[in-house]
Amino acid sequence: MRPTGSHSIIPLDPEIEAFARKQGSKRRQNKNKKKGELAEQPTKSLWEYGVLDTTVDVLSSIVSPAVNAANFELNPQFAGFISSDSFAGLATEFLVIYIASFLEKCDTVKINIVTDNAIRLRLFSFSLRDRAKEWLRDEGTGSLDTWEKLAKAFLVKFLGQEKTAKLRNELATFRQADDEPLYEAWRRYLRLQTQCPHHGILEWMLIQAFYNGLTLEF
Q: How far apart are CA 178 and CA 122, in angstroms?
């Protein structure tokens, strides 16, 4: 039996009804839009799906930004200049010093309306070799589109937590070598700090560690 009484029927809110109609209309529009997009997509044969699209740069993880400058060209000799001091990814290489050297070289190139970001991204691959070059290829196509992203990924890979911990330990346990002059020991200690600028050790602790590591009497 159907219930009777004044409270048996809930009056329809006209605002809710209007909202529901509006949402239904949007859903239909989106559905028709998707159908149109699918219809516009070019069809491929099964053979074409199995062939590499030559318009895609499958080897480069770096996306070089567009340059609007007329007749823009980086001199091949300059690329050779960059690669003459390349980084291989060895544990014995000084990563931070290498980055500083690369940026210094890039700063010698100034072209009107061409950003530093565009120049650095175009030249960075020329500064790598061996293991470091392989890392760049393995980063994923088009994953690095700014110098900040590239530099961060590079530092995470080759100056990660393990190497950082090793450098911090070398700073904390520094020892003057036999027959090493004081000024040479101090220069070597400063170079250690340069290799790990994010060491986080307080200045007074660094000075104390250096003093405790001296072996010669003066």
A: 46
